[in-house]
Each structure stands twice: as structure tokens, then as C-alpha cells.
């Protein structure tokens, strides 16, 4: 059987760990680890665990639900193509059938594997708790869809309405969903990236390969980058009792996502668990040993490190190259779309037959000044996919907007870090509840006197409350009684570095009459 836990909803009650201890395990106070593909012999315990979950966060693969009522659309939609056999792609295909869509659904994926749970890779696979091949997501078996796996999309012809594959074949569509996600940013020097022992962590194969090297008990692991993936890999190494050095050119771990003020708490957490954390430093070179294996790293402060494994955790790049020439507003920042997941073309005009969902999407949110957000979060992929599927087969008057608050989580060093809202939109942060010294607290983020986000360390059950404050544009700093509230709630700068968008293209305008005016990308 297969299962997945919506950890954006999980509040760490641990009832599932009592009901099915061989499948679910609490990690620290609130972190939950689980086996996504347990044996069928454990089905009864797993079903009991799902029923006992107070927030219904456990989703089981109990077969594909029957179709909903037939869709009556003003436009004939008979063929839907989903490019990306990902979490977003799978959920969109499911949602189409629930909506009553009876036409063809084709899912194209560039990996040979059916959709799998990427969350499990850095949380379960690297420690050896779960094999990489047992991370498949529930729901693909029995789904009425054509799967074109190990097939890379290389182009999108909007006029002919087909997707071009690497082998030259084309797949026709009436509606197409772009759900190609992101890939790990590789080490910039190709010869150094090719050394044995140098890894990224994004795909199932990445995790399986790195797991083999960690199981060999290397003398030291180097993690380059202290974002969420880098920090989780470091946590895995310490759980395996492996020496690990984390090199981060920013001021603290997680500074890019939470700001340096909260990042200092994360830094203390890492050092308390034995991580050799070096901030304000970068890796300038990876050296091989003459046999093609990494053996040393040279740092910007002039020091060197002898290492057996190097994990590159420098963020992600969006998979948009295949859209070159498609006339869409797509670039290194992602594919721009409206709140209904409809892609914008290069002129900024919304399309009616091209939709976007998941990590590759860039969409406006009214709570954040309608800025276009690009979010690499599990919950965002699920929500956007279901909204895109609904809108693809619904009349204009019945379409939905993607207005959910972003939520993400990370389990590291026995602590569950959860966030709701967009911390990077804020300029101030305040301790709202608890104490950083105990590693159990909630920090609220604000901008212009309104609360915009909240981050919890082992206090996940409070996020729903803070989510309501964010939705109501409640005043910042928050002012409500709580038994664990500090004496004073005094905001401090969040210390969030505002990254400029990566420069990739210049846009020029052509033509004179309104019918002729066009925007054109000029690539440097």
C-alpha cells in the first residue's frame, strides 16, 4: 500500500505513532517520519492510524475515486496534457477525474519513475530508514491516464496545440498543464561537479546514490549551502554520527527563507548537535585525488577541508528551457500566471489553454501586494494543481483563484520548523510565544504594521491561529494574551536580504498599432 502525510496539516499529536509504530515515528517533539510504502500486512494498523489522526493529515492509496458529474464546458475540452510526472502533475490528474472530466489525460515525465515523494528523500532515505524505491506517491495506480515516463518535453507549440518530445513525437492537447518543477543547481565547474562523491539532492536517484556513500561512513561530509535542504542533510549526517561541515556564504543558516534574526537560532541548533558550521565563507574549489574522487575543498578564507563527500545545496533552477520559443512569460524566475493558474504570454496577456502549477509557477497573491511569488512547497503544489485542474475544465464564471496561504515545514536536528505566510515579505519579526532558548517558540513577522507570516519551532499547532491573523491583516506586533507570551513583544529587524531577480532577458517592444504591438525577449 502507499500513503503520504500532509505535513502542512500535521500538528505532531503522534496518535499515528501509537497506532502503527512500525510505519510512523515521532522525531523530536513534533517531527513525524513515516514509511510511505508499507507492507500490505500493516494495512489494518495504517488504516487505524489514519482514522485516529485529529487533523486527517494521512492520505491513503485506497484506489482511484470514481468520476464526478460530467463537465459541461463552454469550450470542448477532450485532451489534457500534463507535462511533469510530479506531485503537482499527479494531483492535477486526480482532480481532473474528480471534476468529471472524461476525456484523455496524458502525463509526461522525464524520469523513468512514477511520481514519488521528494520530501522523503532528505528526511528518510539518506538515513537509510526508507529505501529510495519505496517513496512512490499514492494515487498513480489505477488512475485513468496515459503515462509517458522517461520522455523529455522539448517544446510547446501553442498555435498547433501540441507538446514536442525529445524523440520527435508530438502530443496534441486542448489544455496543457506545465508542472515541470525545478532541478537542483549543480556545482558551477563541470569538472569538479563530475568528481565521484559530489552530489545534489533532488531526485530519487540522487538520494539513492548519496545514501550509498553515507552508509560507507565517510570521514567527513561537506555540505555547501545552509538552506533547508543543506540543513536537513547536515541533520541526517549527525543522526548517522558522521562528521559534517556546513559552509554558508550568508550570515546564518536559513537566512534566505527566514531572515538572519531567526537564522541565528538555527545556527545555534546546528552547533549544539555537533555541526562544524562556517558562515560568511564560501567554497572556491573542489579538488580530486587523481583517481576522480573528491578529497579536498578550498574555502574563501584560505582554509582547506579534507572531505570524502560533498553535497551541493545551492538552491534550485526552474525547468523552463523547453518553453523557449513558446511565447510565454517564462524565464529563470519561473512561468508567470494569474491567480487562476493560467499562464501569461510574453505580452502579459493571459492564455486560456496553458496552465501552470507547482514549483515552476510564479503567481500573484493579494495579501502580498500582488507580487508574483514562486514557492517550492509541498502544499502549494497540491493546492495549485487542484485549482488548475478545476479551471481547465470549468466555465469562466466557475473558475477558482489560488489564494491559500503558503505553508512549509522542515524537520532537522529533532526540531520541527514550520512557517505560514511569506516571511521574506516582512521587514520585522517579534517573539510572540515561547522561548528560543528552549527551542519551542513562535515568531511573528510583520510589514507596515500588519502581520504577514509566522514561524514555529516545535509549536506547529499554533500556525492555524496565526494563519487567521494573517488573513485578517491583523496588527503587528500581535497583542493577545498567552501563558507563554514574553513580557514584552518588541519587534526587531528580520534581517532579510532582498535578492534581485536573476538577470536573464531584456524585453523590447515592437510595432506601432495596438494590433501590432508585441513584447520580445532579447537574450544576452
TrEMBL record:
Keywords: FAD, Flavoprotein, Oxidoreductase. Signal peptide: none annotated. Its cofactor is FAD. The keyword Magnesium does not apply. Transmembrane segments: none annotated. It comes from the Bacteria. Residues 79-385 form the FAD/NAD(P)-binding domain. Residues 408-479 form the Reductase C-terminal domain. PANTHER family: APOPTOSIS-INDUCING FACTOR 1, RIESKE DOMAIN-CONTAINING PROTEIN-RELATED. This is FAD-dependent oxidoreductase. It comes from Saccharopolyspora rosea.
Amino acid at each position: 500500500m502507499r500513503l503520504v502525510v500532509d505535513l502542512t496539516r500535521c500538528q505532531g499529536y503522534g496518535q499515528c505513532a501509537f497506532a502503527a509504530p512500525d510505519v510512523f515515528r515521532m522525531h523530536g517533539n513534533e517531527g513525524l517520519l513515516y514509511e510511505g510504502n508499507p507492507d500490505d500486512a500493516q494495512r489494518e494498523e495504517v488504516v487505524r492510524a489514519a482514522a485516529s489522526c485529529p487533523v486527517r493529515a494521512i492520505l491513503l492509496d485506497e484506489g482511484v475515486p470514481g468520476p464526478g458529474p460530467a463537465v459541461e464546458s463552454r469550450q470542448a475540452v477532450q485532451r489534457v496534457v500534463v507535462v511533469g510526472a510530479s506531485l503537482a502533475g499527479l494531483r492535477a490528474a486526480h482532480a481532473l477525474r474528480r471534476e468529471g472530466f472524461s476525456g484523455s489525460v496524458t502525463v509526461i515525465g522525464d524520469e523513468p519513475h512514477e511520481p514519488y515523494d521528494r520530501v522523503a528523500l532528505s528526511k528518510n532515505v539518506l538515513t537509510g530508514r526508507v529505501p529510495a524505491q519505496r517513496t512512490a506517491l499514492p494515487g498513480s495506480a489505477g488512475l485513468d491516464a496515459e503515462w509517458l515516463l522517461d520522455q523529455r518535453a522539448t517544446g510547446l507549440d501553442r498555435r498547433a496545440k501540441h507538446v514536442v518530445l525529445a524523440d520527435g513525437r508530438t502530443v496534441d492537447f486542448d489544455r496543457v498543464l506545465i508542472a515541470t518543477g525545478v532541478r537542483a543547481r549543480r556545482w558551477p565547474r563541470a569538472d569538479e561537479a563530475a568528481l565521484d562523491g559530489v552530489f545534489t539532492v533532488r531526485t530519487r536517484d540522487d538520494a539513492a546514490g548519496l545514501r550509498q556513500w553515507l552508509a560507507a561512513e565517510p570521514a567527513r561530509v561537506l555540505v555547501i549551502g545552509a538552506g533547508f535542504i543543506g540543513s536537513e542533510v547536515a541533520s541526517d549526517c549527525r543522526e548517522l554520527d558522521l562528521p559534517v561541515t556546513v559552509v554558508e556564504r550568508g550570515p546564518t543558516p536559513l537566512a534566505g527563507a527566514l531572515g538572519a534574526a531567526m537564522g541565528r537560532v538555527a545556527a545555534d541548533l546546528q552547533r549544539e548537535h555537533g555541526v562544524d558550521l562556517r558562515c560568511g565563507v564560501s567554497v572556491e574549489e573542489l579538488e580530486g585525488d587523481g583517481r576522480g574522487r573528491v578529497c579536498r575543498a578550498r574555502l574563501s578564507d584560505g582554509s582547506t577541508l579534507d572531505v570524502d563527500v560533498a553535497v551541493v545545496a545551492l538552491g534550485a533552477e526552474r525547468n523552463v528551457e523547453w518553453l523557449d520559443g513558446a511565447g510565454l512569460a517564462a524565464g529563470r524566475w519561473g512561468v508567470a500566471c494569474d491567480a487562476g493558474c493560467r499562464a501569461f504570454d510574453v505580452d502579459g496577456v493571459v492564455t486560456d489553454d496553458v496552465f501552470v502549477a507547482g514549483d515552476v509557477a510564479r503567481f500573484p497573491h493579494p495579501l502580498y501586494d500582488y507580487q508574483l511569488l514562486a514557492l517550492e512547497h509541498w502544499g502549494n503544489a497540491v493546492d495549485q494543481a487542484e485549482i488548475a485542474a478545476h479551471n481547465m475544465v470549468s466555465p469562466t464564471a466557475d473558475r477558482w483563484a489560488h489564494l491559500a496561504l503558503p505553508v512549509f515545514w522542515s524537520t532537522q536536528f529533532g526540531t520541527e520548523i514550520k512557517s505560514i505566510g511569506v516571511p521574506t515579505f516582512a521587514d520585522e519579526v517579534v517573539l510572540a510565544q515561547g522561548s528560543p532558548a528552549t527551542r519551542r517558540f513562535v515568531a511573528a513577522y510583520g510589514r507596515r504594521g500588519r502581520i504577514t507570516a509566522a514561524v514555529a519551532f516545535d509549536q506547529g499547532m499554533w500556525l492555524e491561529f496565526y494563519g487567521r491573523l494573517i488573513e485578517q491583516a491583523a496588527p503587528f506586533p500581535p497583542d493577545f494574551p498567552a501563558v507563554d507570551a514574553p513580557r514584552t513583544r518588541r519587534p526587531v529587524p528580520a534581517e532579510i536580504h532582498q535578492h534581485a531577480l536573476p538577470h536573464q532577458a531584456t524585453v523590447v517592444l515592437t510595432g506601432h498599432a495596438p494590433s501590432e504591438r508585441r513584447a520580445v525577449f532579447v537574450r544576452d
